[in-house]
Every structure is written in C-alpha cells, then in structure tokens.
Amino acid sequence: MDEDTPLLDELEKGPWPSYVKEIKRMAKKNKAAKDLLGIQELSYKDRVTHWKHGGIVGVTGYGSGVIGRYCDVPEKFPDAAAFHTMRVNHPAGWFYSTKSLRQLCDIWEQYGSGMTNMHGSTGDAILLGTTTDNLQPCFDSLTEAGFDLGGSGSALRTIAGCVGQARCEWSNFDTLKLVYDLTMEFQDEIHRPRWPYKFKIKASGCPNDCVAAIARADFTIIGTWRDTLRIDQNAVRNYVDNGFDIKTLVVDRCPSEALEWDEKNKELKLQADDCVRCMHCINKMTKAIRPGVEGGATILIGGKAPIIKGAYLSWVLVPFMKIEPPYDEIKDLLRKIWDWWDENGRTRERLAELIERIGLKNFLKEMGIPPVPQMVYKPRANPYVYF
Amino acid sequence: MDEDTPLLDELEKGPWPSYVKEIKRMAKKNKAAKDLLGIQELSYKDRVTHWKHGGIVGVTGYGSGVIGRYCDVPEKFPDAAAFHTMRVNHPAGWFYSTKSLRQLCDIWEQYGSGMTNMHGSTGDAILLGTTTDNLQPCFDSLTEAGFDLGGSGSALRTIAGCVGQARCEWSNFDTLKLVYDLTMEFQDEIHRPRWPYKFKIKASGCPNDCVAAIARADFTIIGTWRDTLRIDQNAVRNYVDNGFDIKTLVVDRCPSEALEWDEKNKELKLQADDCVRCMHCINKMTKAIRPGVEGGATILIGGKAPIIKGAYLSWVLVPFMKIEPPYDEIKDLLRKIWDWWDENGRTRERLAELIERIGLKNFLKEMGIPPVPQMVYKPRANPYVYF
Amino acid sequence: MGRTDIGPPDYREMLPDAIKMNYGKWKYHENVRAGVLKHVSETGDEVYTVRVGSPRLVSIDFIRDLCDIADKYCDGHLRFTSRSNIEFITDNKSNVNGIIEEAAKLGLPAGGTGNSISNIIHTQGWIHCHSAATDASGLVKAIMDEMYEYFTSMKLPAFVRIAVACCINMCGAVHCSDLAIVGVHRKPPKVDNEKVLAQCEIPTTIQSCPTGAIRRNPDPNIKSVVVREDLCMYCANCFTVCPAMPLADAEGDGVAIYVGGKVSNARKPPMFSRMVVPFLPNTPPRWTEVVDVLKKIVEIYAGSAKKYERMGEWIERIGWEKFFRLTEIPFTDQHIDDFTHAVETYRTTTQFKW
Amino acid sequence: MGRTDIGPPDYREMLPDAIKMNYGKWKYHENVRAGVLKHVSETGDEVYTVRVGSPRLVSIDFIRDLCDIADKYCDGHLRFTSRSNIEFITDNKSNVNGIIEEAAKLGLPAGGTGNSISNIIHTQGWIHCHSAATDASGLVKAIMDEMYEYFTSMKLPAFVRIAVACCINMCGAVHCSDLAIVGVHRKPPKVDNEKVLAQCEIPTTIQSCPTGAIRRNPDPNIKSVVVREDLCMYCANCFTVCPAMPLADAEGDGVAIYVGGKVSNARKPPMFSRMVVPFLPNTPPRWTEVVDVLKKIVEIYAGSAKKYERMGEWIERIGWEKFFRLTEIPFTDQHIDDFTHAVETYRTTTQFKW
Amino acid sequence: MAKTTLGGIEMEIDEDGFIQEPDKWNKEIAEDIAKLESAYPMTEEHWKLVNYLRDYFLKYEIAPPIRMLVKQTGLDLKKIYQLFPGGPAKGACKIAGLPKPTGCV
Amino acid sequence: MAKTTLGGIEMEIDEDGFIQEPDKWNKEIAEDIAKLESAYPMTEEHWKLVNYLRDYFLKYEIAPPIRMLVKQTGLDLKKIYQLFPGGPAKGACKIAGLPKPTGCV
Ligand code: SRM
Ligand code: SRM
Ligand code: SRM
Ligand code: SRM
Ligand code: SF4
Ligand code: SF4
Ligand code: SF4
Ligand code: SF4
Ligand code: SF4
Ligand code: SF4
Ligand code: SF4
Ligand code: SF4
User: Fold this and answer.
1) Taking the mean position of all CA atoms in its chain, how far away is CA A281?
2) Contact call for C and D: 3+ CB–CB distances under 8 Å
C-alpha cells in the first residue's frame, strides 16, 4: 500500500469485522475509495471531520435521493473531492435476490467508490461516494435494474417495516405489503420535496417494534390485535413442567397484572380486559401464547430525534385500525395530515413540534378524530382549559 | 328572622355541621354577620360573587396580615360594605389553651363580625369581616393578648407544621420548635412584604407529610432518617399471628422491593440499602416498625398552585439535613434563596418558576450546593448541555 | 400604637399536660374507632384523641362551645388539625365517651381518622373572595352531608382527601387531592378601559397572562389593554392584578372535578390530581350534579381498589381509560392537556386497555 | 433521461421459496443457539435463519461474498436486518453449519439473536458527514471488538441495543437505546460573515436555534448574525441551515454516553436514553475510555439485573442514584436537565436511596 | 366611587383613599393624603421616596419592586415604614398617586 | 471557490454552481445558469417562477416554502419539475441567484 494509515490499521485488529479492511479492499482498485481511506486517516489524526457542508446535486426530475458531499482538502484527495451518496430505496423487509444484489454491485463498481452501507438507518441501501457527473448515468442504470432512489430533504422518506409475516409469527398485518403499497403510492412525495421538513413512516407488525418506529417515525404503524391473546394451556403446562418459572418470569412481569398462575389447576389465567398487549408473555412463551386473531394496528404520530424542540416518542392517534388493502384509511389520514402540516408548519418544524405548538386538540379537530383516553397516559393536571 | 334566606336554609339540613347555622347564630347579635348572610344568599341566587377586588388596608407598621374586602352592593348591605379579614398567626401545631381561644373570641366579638375560619388553609386563624376603622384597635388588642398577625402579600407567609413530636411517634425532628423558631426569626419578613411574590414554608415530621408541604410550600421541610428503620421482629410475628396479611399488604406494596417475608423463620427482612423511607410499612405496622434514630429532614423547594406557569410539587434540594436549634443551616439557606430570588425574580414569579426559567444548575451554583442524583428522578434525555 | 412583631403565642404554653409529658417520646398509636386515636408513649402513658368535624367557617360562640368541652375533659386545651377538624386530647380513657357525646350534642360527629373521608380543605368562595367562581362552604356542606358515613367510619380501602377551591388559584391546594373540586370561569375578562387607567399597571397586567393573550390597546389614545379571546383560558390571573378585568358570570362559572392526587410519600410519590369533569354548572344550594359524580367515584373506588390503595394509585393501576369506562364519565378534548408540558401526558406506547 | 418513480423492486420477487410458502403462516420460533433462529410454520415447515454480523460500511466485494453463500445454501436469497446484520435463511437444517462456517471464513460471526448484544445502529461520522463530532464506524468497531462475546452468546439478562450517532442529530436513533454514544460539540459556532451573506438565509438561521442564541448582527452594514455564546449549547442546528457557522473543533468535540432507553412496548413503555457521561474526548482509533465505560456498565447490569429485565427497566427499579453509585460514574450538574421539560425530571418526593 | 377634597380640589377616590384620576395628582394632593396616612409633615426623605415612585411609574407604568426602591433611594425597609407607617404600598404609593398595588395579598 | 463566466462576467460560484456574489445577479447570468440546468430557453413561465423566487427572497431573506410557491405562481410541482428538471431548489433557486438551499437532505 502506498497509503500510510497507522491509526486506521489499528481497526483491522480485533474479532469484529472491520470496515477498514473493507475500504482497503476497494482502495486497491478504486481511486475514490483510496482517497476516502486517506481522508478518514486524516480525520483520525486531526480529530475533526474533513467533509464540507452538504452540496445540492441530484438527478433530473427529482429533488431528493442524493446527498451532495465535498471534501475540505480536495487538493490532497482529488478523487474524493466530490463524494456524493445515493440513497437507493430497499425492497420492503430488506430481502434481496443475489441476482439483484449483484446488479447493484456492478452498477456501483462502474459509477462509484464501491463502498456502501447496507443499510442506512432510515433503511436505504446507501451507495457511498460518487461524482456529480456520474449521478445521472448511475441513476439511469439503477432504474434499468429495477431500483429507484429513496427520499431525502423535505420529502417523504423511504418507508421501512419489520420482516413481519414473511418470517415472524406475531405480525398482526402484512408489513411488507403495506410498506410496498405506500411506497408506490407516494413516489411523488418521496422524490420531490414539498413540505416544511422531512416526514418518516415506519411499520412494525407487533408492539415489539423491530424497526423502532415509535422512536423514529412521524407516522408510526404498530401491529396489535383487538380481541384476546390466545393461550394454549397444554403448551403452558409443558413450559412449567420443564422448569420454566412462570410466576417470576411471566406473571409478575405482566405490566397490567392481567395474568395469574393457578398452581392447583396448572392453568394460566388471563383477565383479558386488563391485558395491554405488551407482548411480554407471548415473547417468553412462544409456543404457548400468541396474539389474538383480529389483527390491525395502532397508529401513532410524531416520533423524532432531538432537533429542534427535543426528541419525541410517537403518540397514539388511532388506537386500532384494520390494515388491509387498498389501505385507503391510512392513505387518507396521511394526506390529511400532510395537508394540515404543510399549511401550518414552519420551516423545519416536524409534525410533533407543530402539534405541540398548535395543540393536539386542534389537530384532532382538523383530522376529525374524536378524543379517547387511549391517546393519553393521563388527563391534564392544570386547569388551563379553553372552553 | 327578618332575613329571608330560602336557599341557604337548605344548607341547614343534613348531618354535617352547617356553616349557615353558624352565620345565623352570629347574625342574631351582629349586624355585619347578618349582612354577610344576606350577601351569601344573594350570591346563591345570582350565582356570582358579590365581593369586589381586594382593598389595601392594614395596620400601622405592617404591610401584611389584613385582606381588604368590599361588597359590591354596599347599599343593600351597609354593615358588610367593608368586610376585611385579619390573618392571626396560629400557635405552632394549632394547639390552644381555652383561655387564649376565649380571649380571641372576645376581641373578635368587640371588633368584628364574630365569624372566623379555624383555620385558613395557610394555617392562620382567620378573623372574618371587620371595618377599616376597627383594624388598628383590634390589632392592638390582639397583641395585648399575645397574638400577632400572619403573612399576606409578597411576604413570607405564616409557617405551618404538622403536630409532630407533640403527638406523633414518627416525627424525625421537632416540627413545632422549628416552626416557632423560624416564625420568630422572620417576623420582619412576615409582616413587611419585600419580594417578587409570596413565599411559603411548611414542615412535616415525616414523609407522610401531614401538612401537605410538598404541594404547597416554596420551602418544604420533610422529616426523614439517615440510618435504617427499626423492626421489632416479635411485634411483626404478633401481627402475622393475628392474621395480618403481611405479604400482600406490606411486602408487595413496598415501592422499592426492599422487604421480604421469610415465612420459614417468621422474619421480616429488610434490604436496608433499598429502602426509600416511604413510611408504608411503618404506617401499617405501627407497633412493629419505626423510623431510624438518626433523624433529620429532606429540604425541598418550589411547591405551589397553578398560577402562572402551572402547579409544581417541591423538588429535592438537600437530601438530608440535621434539624437542630439554632437552625442556622436552614436560616442561612433561606436567606440565600430569598436574596437570589429577590435579585432575579420578576414580579409575581415564584421560586420554582424562576428556577425553571434560569435553570436549576445555575441556582445550585449560586447556593453552593453540589448536584447529587437524589435531586432528580432521572438525568436529562436531551443532549442540549451547556459546557 | 401597640406592639409589633411579637409573633404568635409560644406553642409550649398551649400544650396540655398529657402532651407535654410525652413530647417526643411517642412509641406507637392505634386507631381505636372512627374518630378516636390512642397514642402510647415510651413512658407507658396512653393518650386519647377524639377528632370531630367542623364546618371551619364558625362563629365565636362555636369556639366557646368547644372550649367548654375542653375545659371539662381536656385540661383546658384543644387543637385543630391541618384539615380544620377539632381534636380533644385526654390521658383519661373514660373521658372519651363524654367528649364524643358532648360533641354530638353540638352536632359535631367524631370521625375523620384512618381510612375515612376526613374534613374537606376549602377556601372562601362567595363568603369572602372577589375571585370566586363558585362557593366553597356550600359545596363542602353538600358534599360532606353525602359523605357523612365515610367520615364516621373507616371502611374505605384508604383515606380519601377532598379539597375545594373556589377558583383556579387553588388556595385549597386542590392540585394534589384524591378528589378535588375547583371553581372555573368560562368567559374571558371584560375590560373596563377607564378603570384600567386608574387602577392597573399595564405592563404587569400584560405579563400576568400565562398564554400571552393580553396586549396593549392598539389605539394609542386608549391607555388600556385588549384580550385576544381565542387565547384566553379564563384563568383570571389578569383580574388578580387588574381589578378592571372581571370574569365572573352566572352562566360561565361553575366547577371542574379533578381526581387521583396525593401528597404523602407513602408507596407512590406525590401526584397531581387530574381533570375528570371539565365543567358542571353552579347549582346552589346543593350542587347535586357535583355531589353525584363524587359519590359515584368514591363508590366505584371503594368497590374496586385494593386495601391501602389510594385513589390515584388505584387509577394508575387500572389505567385512566378504564377509570373513564367504569365511571362512565365522558372523555372530551378538554381532558387532553395543551399547556406547557402537555406532551408528557401523551401516550407513547401501544399499551392501553379498551 | 431514464425512467422515474418506478419505486423499489417488489419484495415478493426477493423472497426465498421457504418464506413464500409460509408467508403469514408462522406459528412459533425457537432460539436454537446464538445466531440461529428456527421458525415453525402452521404447515409444519421449519425454517432456519443464520444471522451474522456486518460492519455495515462494506465494499461491493463483501456483498458479492455474501451472495456466494446465499447462492450455495439459500436459494439465491438473503436479507439484512433492521440492525444491519445479514440473515441467511434455509429450510434445510443441515445447511446451518455450512453457512456458519463459510461466514466465519469471511470473518463474520454468527450471533446477535436472543439476549445478546446485536450489531450497533450507527451513522456516517468522519466517513461522510460534515456535521460529525466523532467517527461512527471506528467507535462501532472498537466497541464491538470488546462486546464480541456478548454478540456470539445469549447470556445477558435481556438483549442490549447499542446505537452510535456522530452528532446530536442522532441519525442513529440513539435517543431510545439501552446504550447510546453520541458525538457532541462543546464550542459555539464560528460565524464567517462573508459566507453568511452568500450562503445563508438569515431568518432561517435565527429561527433554527432552539435556545434563541442567534441574532442579527447589530451592525446594519454587516448582513450576518451573531451568537450569544452563553446561550449556545452547541447543537449545530444553525450549522445545518447555514454552512458559514461551523463548530467542529478537535478539542471541543467528543462523545457523550446515554443509557437505559428502549423502543419495544414489552413490559414498560418505550423510554428515552438518559445521559450518564456528559463528555469524553475523542481518542481514535480505539476510544478506550468510552469502551471501558460501556463495558463496565454492561457488566454491572449483567450481574445485577433480573432475567428479562432491560437496562432501563433495571435502572428504574434500582433507581438512578444507585446506578451512579454502582458504576461510580460522577454525577454533575450537566446531568440535571435544563431544557424545556426539565422540571418533569426533578424529584418531587422524599423517596430516594443513598 | 366616593369624592373628597384633596389639595383643594374635588377628587374621586376609591374605598382605600387611592385617587382615581391619576393625571390630576400634584404636591398638594400628595400632602393631603400624607396627612391621612400619618406621614405628615413630609420631609425631604418622604419626597425622595414619593418622587422616586412617581418617576418610576411614569417611566415604566409599574411601581418599582421593593428591592429596587430600597437600593435606589438608600432608605431601608425599616426606615420606609417609619416614614410611611402604612408601608410602601398602602402609604407611599397612595401619596404618590399610583394605582392601588394589587397582586398577591 | 471556483470562478466561471456567467452573463459575460467573471463570477464566483460554489461546487454546485450557486453564485457567491448575489448582488451581481442579472437576467443574463440567470439565462447562462439556466443553460447548465437544462432550463433554457427560458419561457414566460420560467421567468414567472424565477422572479417570484427572487422577489420573495429580497423581501423576506428566505426562499419561499414550496406550498407558497405553487399557490402564488399557479404552477404545480409537476410542472415546476418540467420547467426546471433540477427542481425548485437545485434548478430554480440557482437560476434566481439565491443562496444554496440547505436544511434537511
Ligand atoms: C384565605 C385563604 C383561603 C382560605 O379560605 O383558607 C386564601 C385566600 C386568598 N388567596 Fe390564597 N388563600 C389561602 C391559602 C392559599 C394556599 C394554601 C396554602 O397557603 O397552603 C394556596 C396554594 C399554595 C400556594 O401558595 O401556591 C393559595 C394560592 C393562592 C394563589 C395562587 C398562587 C400561585 O402561585 O399559584 C393566589 C393568587 C395570587 O397570589 O394572586 C391566591 C390569592 C388569594 C386571595 C388573596 C385572592 C386574590 O386573588 O387576591 C384570596 C383572598 C380571599 C379572601 O377574600 O379572603 N392564593 N392560597 C388562605 C389563606 C388563609 C391563611 O392565611 O391561613
Ligand atoms: C392530625 C394530622 C396532623 C396535624 O398536624 O393536624 C394527622 C395526623 C396523623 N396522620 Fe396524617 N394527619 C393529618 C393530615 C394529613 C395529611 C394532609 C391532608 O390531609 O391535607 C396527609 C397527606 C394527605 C395526602 O397524601 O394527600 C396525611 C397523610 C398521612 C398518612 C399517609 C397515608 C397514605 O397512605 O398516603 C399517614 C399514614 C397512614 O394513614 O397510614 C398518616 C398518619 C397520621 C397519624 C396516624 C400519625 C400518628 O402516628 O399520629 C395521625 C393520625 C391519623 C389519622 O387521622 O388516622 N397521615 N395526613 C392531620 C389530620 C387531618 C384531619 O383532620 O383529617
Ligand atoms: C430481524 C429483526 C426484524 C427485522 O425486520 O430486521 C427482528 C426479529 C425478531 N425480533 Fe426483534 N428484530 C429486530 C429488531 C428489533 C428492534 C429494533 C432495534 O433493535 O433497533 C427491537 C426494539 C429494540 C428496543 O426495544 O430497543 C426489537 C424488539 C424485539 C423484542 C422486545 C424485547 C423486549 O423485551 O424489549 C422481541 C421479543 C423478545 O426478544 O423477547 C423481539 C423478537 C424478535 C423475534 C423473536 C420475532 C420473531 O418471532 O421472529 C425475531 C428474532 C429475534 C432475535 O434476534 O432473537 N424483538 N427487535 C431485527 C433484528 C435486528 C438485529 O439484527 O439484531
Ligand atoms: C445516512 C443517514 C445516517 C446513516 O449513516 O445511516 C443520515 C445522514 C444524515 N442525516 Fe439523518 N441520516 C439517516 C437517518 C436518520 C434517522 C433515522 C431514521 O430515519 O430512522 C434520524 C432520526 C429520526 C428522525 O428523523 O427524527 C435522522 C435524523 C436527522 C436529523 C434530525 C432530525 C430531527 O427532527 O431531529 C438531521 C438534521 C436535519 O434534518 O437537518 C439529519 C441530517 C442528516 C444529514 C443529512 C446531515 C445534515 O445535517 O444535512 C446526514 C447526511 C450524512 C451524509 O453525509 O451522508 N438526520 N437521520 C441516515 C439515512 C440513511 C438512509 O436513508 O437510510
Ligand atoms: S415487530 Fe413484531 S411482527 Fe415485526 S418482526 Fe418484530 S416481533 Fe415480529
Ligand atoms: S401481553 Fe403483556 S399485558 Fe397482556 S397478558 Fe401478556 S404480559 Fe400481560
Ligand atoms: S407528618 Fe409524619 S410526623 Fe407529622 S403528624 Fe404526620 S405522620 Fe406524624
Ligand atoms: S419504608 Fe417504604 S420503602 Fe422502606 S421498607 Fe418500608 S415500605 Fe419499603
Ligand atoms: S381559591 Fe380563588 S376564589 Fe377561593 S379564596 Fe382562593 S383566590 Fe379566592
Ligand atoms: S383570564 Fe387568564 S388567559 Fe384570559 S386574559 Fe386573563 S390572564 Fe390571560
Ligand atoms: S448523526 Fe450527525 S454527523 Fe452523524 S450522520 Fe447524522 S447528521 Fe451526520
Ligand atoms: S449551535 Fe445550536 S444553540 Fe448554538 S447558536 Fe447554533 S443553533 Fe443555537
């Protein structure tokens, strides 16, 4: 190697797979990757980033999908002077055929640095590092191969969902179908920014929330059931007979004290009314307890990271909704929300912040959604009521 | 009766002692009381108050202790046209000799309506209804009899404490002595308003907080102990042997899971380290469990009602302090707080609101109090740190 | 001019002998029966307390009546509690019944101890306050008449503390009570421009508004203020600093009901009371609608809570959604907080009951 | 010009047969061993998943290597997880070992299932972002090297989710992780007036500041902004909208550690992570101080938590004061919140431990 | 509202003797109120305080905080109560023709 | 920073072609940028949008929200992308001589 990277070399050691090895692997055959290595080593030395504030570049007809990036020492690293990323919308559930993955690799071999993130934390396949000139031809090849760009900027972002019914017994609706359907429906919103700020949608099939939707999505769809969870008492007895401490590990951990272990009759009793569908007993006794059969989802809104007013977890908006094609109820709700947000939101004001500013009450009124106690942990304590 | 009070008459019925009867009783011999009855009946008819916004009247040399009040229909009720109240500072713990109580009655017979509140919710004996002219002579007679006025306005308010060691086995310091000592020390602060707003001090001998200090005092002193609670295992066994369900009623209710009932050895085990001194086990097994012996108090600050920024419960400021005469530590702290609040507070901004505006961190610095985790339920979640 | 700053009487002069001798030496206590406490001292002394109810708003003759009892049975001393009850203390067990009987003659019930409903903490109302949106004494009388059996018994799962405040200044410290009734306005203040000029500090008035609804009158010739009615939530804080902005209104005024607060640190930390009924009209003299709601809540609580479980603890355990279902109180958008820390009350989980 | 708005490939074309046939019919699953899941279908089918770790930042050759394995054992399909692990799925039990071995040859460990430490959710850092106050990939590598044994085993009380974000924009959704490492600045932005003119919208810049620290430059001749440094808490939000206000600084930048967040609704509702170490300097390449703190926390947690108790649940049970005592991490005034909803974190009870 | 003669002219006052026509205030009126408030004869120190109150009010439209009053006039609270037995609010503000201090009582 | 010739004069531009000396902007410069942005020749509709952007920016110092832009010009987003294949930010703002839109990407 003609690059000298003593600091990064340290990160080739140790048992966990090394990203440095990966860059070096590409650096052997790709100049941009080689300069990336150099820039990274320089940052490790200087302890500051060497990337400049984002550029604004893209492909024809889209306002999003590309993150422009320039190096602040282009003299030293001309081959990574421009180092834009392309966000490629992943197939729902992150399933790939090797055929399509190999196609992606080939395209990126031709037009980019050969480095990728599989995946970015919104969910896109991130193609990391290309030049402005390569953007359009790369994009053209991508669409040729059946891929499209995801969202960026003040647009709808790439929608993600958990693996769901594809490989999980608990999914209360078909997350992949929903994610795909919404993604196709809202192509325009994904590719052409138009709102005060970004908007994210994520869907998990059950309250375990394996895509962390509640923390990261403005519109959060989390599967749940409307009826009662199903208990197979024989299977329960099997657990107990095999030494599973059902009292300590399940009954006592039920957050709503809905379970009781009847030692005498060897029966797990459920006060169905009290179950808040937290999943715990199901999670821990996979063979004995299952969600109910009347599947659907709770819709929550407003999850986001700290900028500007602080982080928010999503709030319950619709306690239960059936999630079935053609998903009109969800689509209508989304459009209503966007319209209201777009009309009232300030620049860079996300949905939760706008609602906090204008009041949940007013938002509900605009949405035509009646207030229910399920929306709050508790009613107001202050007496400052608008009548 | 020449007054016709059909609505109020309804409130003479029923088993609970009737305040209407009380007014009527006075109305027979006191014109102001008679007019009070009329005004009250009128309010019941009109469903609005007939008192005007507070007047500003008082006694010589004091800025507080008297609440001025005028009726808005003086033509109809000339004898209650002016109907000021005098706030008489109660003896700590609300103990009275009948001698002193009778003196109070006699004075009020002479100068006022003869109606009182025993007591107002800050703790004063409220003498309800007199004229401007009577204020000074009434005050003079009161001091003659050994009574003085309490606080009102932007002053230190009458200090209150629970019955404490006078008749309670759980008091971790002498509440009455402290209340009396502070009251005597801060007479000037009670009688001559000088601050941005009112300031309240309340003291309870243990975490049961029988004067509701934590909710109502800017400076809250709540007794606690620094060592370990005391368990008399024989007495415990006595409870259990008499059918007391110690598991359900005590062990399972301990908020910090610090207790365990050893059925075999008939022993109540305490994980002393985990006890948060909530009082529950002590409250329910009065003969078997007692606080520790190293008594003192937790100092909390900022409790108040909703105006302006909403209600606050008091926050832990000093987790543990010995409370012993001459109480210099408490007095110094109070003076420091007042000075800072007075210097920085806006008009009608109570301590909690000021601290919220300026930051607890800055307040602690000014007070020279080091931060400890006992001050918070949990550390910050947001990353917005001033370094 | 008389003496000033002498302070209140020294409490030591006010203590009965039985207390003085055992001061700081108490060992344990027992709830003998409703209204009667027995405190036992390390010295072996036993002291009995009889607690009786009081309307709080009383005449001097009432106090003299109390003194008569105290002189007869209690060494010439008595005390009041932090909830305005009266306590007669004696070290002579045989005095207990006498005290109870004499109090009964005066119409004063023994009770309020243990798992009871004690006396109501309340405020001035139409008796004395310009700010009142309801009466306090009348509400209290109407409620306590209905709760009487709970005062004179100890049959509830835990004690239930009730407070009444006649406006949202909440002098009754309503904000942390098991059951709280608070007077509320529902009409914005009516500004009297002339009075503003003479009686109000305009900057103070503007600053007083928690929601920033008050501005200077845009007409420079009118030295007064205007209220943006859509921003006003009728807190009356402006009225407190500016008499020229009254809000009282027979139709607008009424009461709200809050529940589930607590003050003690026993088991759960102190909690705020929370709104369950945003508004009920004033219906003096007996406020029947209000009393009915309270009674219903207490009965459902009594039937559903675990022993030693305070109202708020019970509700937290079963969940507010179940509370509203059980009590059949309608949930409205007014229940949803929209003040400063509102978002902290929004449910950020899929966990809920139906 | 190519096609637009075609959307991503249809997921149905990406599913292996074993999945297609049992889609929506799954009955239960078992954790066979670390890194291996067995899902059983109502049809009776059994499907095995081998999960292996990935550095996330990978070359195309890495992906091709994966494809080779998938072609050999998995019907030409594979998937990635929401934590960037790779999953090989097969209905042939005997393939499992082969997959594990071939992955091991590539240096990819099987693990991350059950009560393990799975892969770290992370972000761009010095690899690609202008906003970064630390590197992400390097931190992740250093941490995972140390946590390796927890990835390849399932011996923790519950799983521990780690996230790294290189600045407080928190692209890594650090705010709800069991353990979170976030890059922080500690110097206010340096304003370049000329650049502001050409590159920034002044009103947007002013509005961007959460604490109102930015004002127009008082000199009317300078069309730019000034920062009130005492109000600045280095969030870099201004820099996001105005490139002329960089904050990066070798001495000022470093990382903070947050703990105890969670996302799932299992047992306790989702919770935010909370600050335990306000600042540690950047010490690339191995960030030893950071790694040591994390390791210590994990070990104390592993030793003290109950089975199935997540980090945050454990801390809530024992109390933060005890957490700080056990970990010996110093508590400072920076731990005390002073942002918008700060008062909700202040302790309003006498209940605490020492 | 009651009327009374102050400084030789007929003035409207409220129940507590606060004048209701603030623009008519003058020194004579002040001295007449001072008589009622046991603050007469008015010394230089009386005027210092009254003038300070008045100036502050005309400038800021509010009465000054006590802390400010004490700092700026150099008179401590004890002294103020000696000069104006009714205190700064009931005594001095009334004489200075300010609106009746409201707020918290 | 790079230099290039636009509208006949030497102009400083950034990597993305946004001009760095906003006061020098004129129609010729706009048209030259439009050529690079595949928005040439500029029709009346092009100018309508560019002028609106420019006027709005000069007045408010910010670029208008898309919703406003669409409402005020009567051109829907689809149409805007037809006129300016780079879109409102990369295309139209650049031509109008505005600062490079930043914020969220
Ligand atoms: C008399 C009393 C009610 C009673 O009947 O018991 C009372 C009566 C008034 N209170 Fe109070 N407060 C009384 C205890 C309280 C308490 C309870 C306490 O002190 O423990 C509180 C709640 C605790 C607190 O201070 O936060 C209380 C919170 C208020 C407030 C709201 C303060 C806040 O910061 O939220 C106001 C409004 C104000 O200060 O302008 C207020 C204002 C008032 C005024 C002066 C009305 C006003 O707006 O100017 C009332 C005069 C009524 C009258 O005409 O007599 N009163 N007030 C209590 C004093 C009696 C006594 O001295 O013993
Ligand atoms: C007399 C009084 C203190 C005083 O200085 O006046 C008092 C006296 C006692 N309280 Fe109290 N409490 C008194 C007001 C309070 C208050 C304040 C209030 O009600 O506004 C509280 C806080 C209420 C709240 O949390 O909202 C209070 C919370 C307690 C508790 C905590 C109960 C709980 O589980 O939350 C206990 C312990 C218990 O009852 O088990 C307690 C226990 C006691 C004991 C048993 C203490 C003792 O060992 O002597 C006393 C007799 C209680 C009884 O009535 O059965 N006392 N107690 C007050 C009587 C008021 C009344 O007339 O009813
Ligand atoms: C594959 C994946 C979904 C996907 O679409 O990619 C997935 C798959 C499963 N999750 Fe998950 N979870 C996945 C990310 C998550 C996340 C999101 C995250 O980590 O960012 C969460 C929320 C984390 C949080 O709360 O902070 C998550 C919270 C759970 C839980 C809740 C556990 C708890 O007690 O809080 C369960 C139930 C359990 O483990 O008992 C669960 C259970 C499962 C099960 C057992 C579901 C099933 O029956 O198939 C799957 C195998 C779990 C295992 O690894 O042992 N999954 N799971 C994700 C694997 C990530 C990885 O590579 O490690
Ligand atoms: C690439 C990615 C990180 C990664 O390595 O995975 C990323 C990278 C950037 N994010 Fe992000 N965000 C990425 C997922 C997230 C997430 C997670 C998610 O979407 O689930 C979040 C938290 C959830 C949320 O949106 O609240 C996130 C919250 C932010 C924020 C703060 C937003 C807020 O409202 O608090 C910013 C700041 C902003 O928008 O100006 C931001 C901004 C940025 C920018 C554009 C920097 C900037 O200030 O302009 C970063 C570009 C880095 C670069 O040069 O490539 N990014 N960003 C993720 C997108 C990849 C993908 O498409 O799959
Ligand atoms: S969120 Fe629920 S349905 Fe989706 S993968 Fe996780 S456990 Fe399965
Ligand atoms: S799903 Fe959760 S709430 Fe429901 S019974 Fe099981 S453990 Fe309890
Ligand atoms: S607060 Fe504690 S010490 Fe005081 S009376 Fe109540 S129980 Fe006794
Ligand atoms: S005082 Fe409270 S916390 Fe301590 S052991 Fe008793 S019940 Fe538990
Ligand atoms: S609560 Fe309101 S109305 Fe009642 S006494 Fe207090 S201030 Fe007056
Ligand atoms: S009543 Fe309250 S909200 Fe309405 S104007 Fe007055 S201060 Fe503002
Ligand atoms: S967390 Fe910050 S530094 Fe890291 S990728 Fe996101 S915006 Fe960039
Ligand atoms: S870094 Fe954050 S706090 Fe500091 S000036 Fe910029 S936006 Fe404001």
Assistant:
1) 26
2) yes
Residue B263: what residue type? E
Closest Cα of chain B to C301: distance in Å? Answer: 18
- Cα separation of D163 and D178, whole Å? 8
What CA–CA distance (Å, rounded) separates E20 from A316? 55
Q: Which tokens go with B173?
A: 């310091």
Class of domain B50-150: alpha beta
**Interval between CA B4 and ligand 12 midpoint (Å):** 69
> What is the CATH code for A230-290?
3.30.70.20
Nearest to B284 among C23, C132, C308 (CB): C308
For the purposes of burial, counting CB atoms within 10 Å of the CB of B165, is it exposed (0-12), middle (13-18) or buried (19 or more)? buried
Q: Is B58 on the interface with E (CB under 8 A)?
A: yes
The closest of F101, F100, F96, F98 to F30, measured between CA atoms, is: F96
Residue minimizing CA distance to atom 2 of ligand 7: B206
Task: Report long-range pairs for D218-224 (Cβ below 8 Å, ≥24 apart).
Answer: D222/D193, D223/D193, D223/D196, D223/D197, D224/D191, D224/D193, D224/D196, D224/D197
Q: Are A70 and F15 a contacting pair at CB < 8 A?
A: yes
Q: B201-204 and B160-161 as β-strands: parallel, antiparallel, unpaired?
A: parallel
Give the pair of three-digit tokens for residue C149. Answer: 């059996």
pLDDT tens for each residue of E13-31: 998 999 998 889 999 999 9
Pick the CATH number of B160-226+294-367 from 3.30.413.10, 3.40.50.10490, 2.40.50.100, 2.10.110.10: 3.30.413.10
Q: Phi and psi of D67, rounded to 5°?
A: -60, -35
| Residue range(s) in chain B whose domain bears CATH number 3.30.70.2500 | 50-150
| List F1, F61, F102, F104, catalytic entry | F104
Q: What is the pLDDT of residues A318-354, one digit of tens each?
A: 999 999 999 999 999 999 999 999 999 999 999 999 9
Q: Are D88 and D70 in contact (CB under 8 A)?
A: yes
Chain A: give the shortest CA distance to residue D216, in Å: 19
Closest Cα partner for D69 from D18, D37, D103?
D103
Nearest CA to CA, how far is B265 from chain C (Å)?
25
What letters, b where the CB count within 10 A reaches 16 and e where it falls short, cover A155-178?
A: bbbbbbbbbbbbbbbbbbbbbbbb
Does A253 contact chain C (CB < 8 Å)?
no
Domain-wise residue ranges, chain E: 2-95
D-F CB pairs within 8 A amount to 34
Q: Report the pLDDT value the prediction gives residue D3, as an integer from 0 to 100.
A: 87
Here the ipTM equals 0.95
Condensed to tens digits (0 to 9), the pLDDT of residues C202-253 reads 999 999 999 999 999 999 999 999 999 999 999 999 999 999 999 999 999 9
Q: How far apart are CA A37 and CA D58, in angstroms?
A: 13
D105 C-alpha to ligand 3 centroid (Å): 26
- Looking at the domain covering F2-95, what would its CATH class be? mainly alpha
* Cα distance between residue A282 and residue A271, in whole Å: 15
Question: What does the alpha-carbon distance between residue B333 and residue F59 come to, in Å, rounded to a whole number?
Answer: 54
Report residue C1's pLDDT band, with 50, 70 and 90 as the boundaries: low
Bond preceding residue E88 cis, omega within 30 of 0: no
